What does this fold into?
Amino acid sequence: EQVKPFLAPLSIKKIPGVGQKNYQLLRNMGIPTIELLTKIPPEMMQKVLGKEGVHIWEKANGIDRTPVVPYSEQKSISTEQTFATDTTDIIFLQNLLVSMTEGLAFELRKQTKLTGCITVKIRYANFDTHTQQISIPYTSSDHVLIGKAKELFRKLYNRRMLIRLLGVRLSSLVQGFQQIDLFEDTAEMANLYQAMDKIRHRFGESAVKRAVGA
It folds into this structure.
């Protein structure tokens, strides 16, 4: 492929990776411009500058060997906390569960995404790890997700053993805005979320917290 006309007369200094030392060396070889550099065999560049010479030659010729990384849609978001001291404090655990779920719901709304699956994870002091998940209609509403998280937690935590870790994950993510459900949501609830999110954006996620019983 021919070098683009507007690049041809430019100094080799314009090529990324050509420092002062390489610039002087190439100038001394009678190669001051990009056009002249493209006409030099790559084998000669390798002999003079090694692998770096080949990279410079490729850049001059518009060859980019940077691997292409395919775009991957985010499939889930999650958070978890390992406790310094194992606990059975149900109020503390419920408070944390609500806070975690609120934070993830806020993150969903920031990304204009909805979730179709929620998972709660607990790890006991003996390192036994258990998870429960449930598929739900696509949502980003705090009260829906918190209700489901509490339901899963009640099913999971039935051994009354010390807990070392608590986590929440939202998966089956899709792009979209929350639709108001006539049976679950109200316009007032939607407005409340908008107001709360504005406060969180301005003052941080911890600026607004929901009571456990709410």
Summary: Residues 180-184 have pLDDT under 50 and may be disordered.
